[in-house]
Specification:
Layout lengths: L2 E4 L4 H11 L7 E4 L4 H10 L3 E3 L7
Parallel strand pairs: 1-2, 2-3
Length: 59
């Protein structure tokens, strides 16, 4: 399974996530930045493979 991270989830980020997941048998794991928290929460609530990250930091 692919893993993809989206930083800054606004209208373009939403379109990218939707395009990656619509009509796909096995959508990729998508990690969403907390920037654009409302959009990230909505996407992670409606697409099972989306997760809203707590931070953009890796360490």
């Amino acid at each position: 399974m692919e893993r993809i991270g989206i930083i800054g989830v606004g209208e373009i980020g939403r379109a990218i996530v939707t395009g990656l997941c619509d009509g796909v048998e096995e959508p990729p794991e998508i990690y969403l930045s907390p920037r654009g928290a409302r959009t990230s929460a909505a996407l992670s609530g409606s697409i099972r493979t989306c997760t809203c990250a707590l931070t953009t930091r890796t360490s």
